[in-house]
Design a protein that fits this description.
It is a single chain. With 272 residues, the chain is an alpha/beta fold. 29% of the residues lie in helices and 14% in strands. It contains 10 helices and 11 strands. The chain has a 5-stranded parallel beta sheet with strand order 1-5-4-2-3. Strands 7-6-10-11 form a 4-stranded parallel beta sheet. A two-stranded antiparallel sheet has the order 8-9. The radius of gyration is 18 Å and the shape is globular.
């Protein structure tokens, strides 16, 4: 009898290696395509990150529509019993966004490979150069708004004492020194903790010590007793901070419109 999978949110390479070949395991690689071709976890299905975004300005990072999601998720072979393990080659941005995508369609059987392909290679585990062809499924996507907020919600609530906006962009973008939208700066009251700060560069980009991260975020007002809304420019970098918030036990949601939408709207308030 096949063991039913029940994996932690964050899984280490050695633990994943022990499970490879399980019929209910679906491993997804959201790395650069060249890196996927050079070396990936054996059996991992490649997912182009472009398929995870709607790509329509100004909110280019919005979730694809249900038809597009159905095509994506059935194309990779997702079924209700599959446990998805997702990773990338950049420390978790695209992988975290895919976990948010899965939350958005109500599929909560997922894990993040800690450190992604860097940690896998660091553990000297087997790699493959063969493209994995998925077995298509009949998955039908139905979107729930639960893991996301839109611009109107944020406009009405950003000032609440029990809500904090987590800006995952660089300090220069947050301060308005540079940017890619008509307006630069940040949402009033937002806390800036750049996504890469949470990655351990001495340990193959694994997530840093949880207690230390909780302490650093608390200094900025990002705490478990608040509603946390995270964003970046297009909800790519904040894909990782969304994942991180879940790992650390925060009540976290994403603003997928992100600064691409907020910074191009003439009616949104901005601080610098």
């Amino acid at each position: 009898m096949t063991e039913i999978l029940d994996l932690p949110l964050v899984i280490e390479p050695e633990a994943l290696e022990a499970l490879r070949g399980h019929p209910d395991l679906l491993i997804l690689d959201l790395s650069n395509p060249d890196n996927y071709r050079q070396a990936h976890v054996p059996g991992a299905v490649f997912v182009p990150y472009q398929h995870t975004v709607r790509g329509v300005p100004p909110a280019v990072g919005a979730l694809p529509n249900e038809e597009q999601l159905t095509q994506l998720l059935s194309g990779i072979g997702l079924t209700s019993n599959k446990w998805v393990v997702v990773y990338d080659d950049e420390g978790g941005g695209w992988a975290g966004r895919f976990i948010w995508l899965l939350d958005s369609v109500g599929h909560q059987k997922y894990s993040y490979l800690n450190g992604g392909i860097h940690a896998w290679l660091g553990a000297r585990l087997p790699v493959s150069q063969e493209v994995t062809e998925p077995v298509h499924s009949n998955y039908q996507a139905s979107v729930t708004a639960a893991p996301s907020v839109d611009r109107s919600y944020l406009m009405a609530n950003y000032h609440r004492d029990d809500l904090v906006v987590w800006d995952a962009r660089s300090p220069e973008e947050y301060q308005g020194i540079r940017g890619n939208s008509r307006k630069t700066g940040h949402i009033p009251g937002a806390a800036n903790y750049e996504w890469v700060r949470a990655m351990d560069r001495q340990n193959q980009l694994r997530i840093r010590d949880h207690d230390q991260l909780i302490s650093e975020l608390a200094e900025l007002g990002i705490t478990r007793d608040k509603e946390v809304i995270t964003h970046c420019q297009t909800h790519h970098r904040s894909g990782f901070t969304y994942l991180l918030g879940k790992v650390l036990g925060f009540h976290i949601r994403a603003y997928p419109g992100s600064w691409a939408e907020w910074g191009n709207d003439p009616d949104t308030p901005v601080e610098t």
